Amino acid sequence: MDYKLDQAGIFITAEIHIKDNVPLSQGLAAIRQFCADMNSESGCSLAMATQHKTHPKQFVFWERYDDQAAFDAHFVAPHTQAFIKAGLTELKQAFDYQRLATEV
């Protein structure tokens, strides 16, 4: 699988928590499906969730989009809107970066 990690693009790191009142199994299923859906988006070459070792309801998402248009399209995608509206998780923080420029 080519993640294009060595190419220009938009790189997102986001900390997500499954809400306290949501069963872990339900939250895990939603996160797995959301990552699968993101990986099917045109312009998204990587979407994966990593789970905290000792706090199983805490996750860090790593995502890579080809460009700003692909990243913007992600937020209006039906699966993204459904994930947000389900209210199973909360976004704690997010970082939006691009590759370091090779020239100054």
From TrEMBL:
<dbReference type="GO" id="GO:0004497">
    <property type="term" value="F:monooxygenase activity"/>
</dbReference>
<dbReference type="InterPro" id="IPR007138">
    <property type="entry name" value="ABM_dom"/>
</dbReference>
<dbReference type="InterPro" id="IPR011008">
    <property type="entry name" value="Dimeric_a/b-barrel"/>
</dbReference>
<keyword id="KW-0503">Monooxygenase</keyword>
<protein>
    <submittedName>
        <fullName>Antibiotic biosynthesis monooxygenase</fullName>
    </submittedName>
</protein>
<feature type="domain" description="ABM">
    <location>
        <begin position="10"/>
        <end position="104"/>
    </location>
</feature>
<keyword id="KW-0560">Oxidoreductase</keyword>
<dbReference type="Pfam" id="PF03992">
    <property type="entry name" value="ABM"/>
</dbReference>
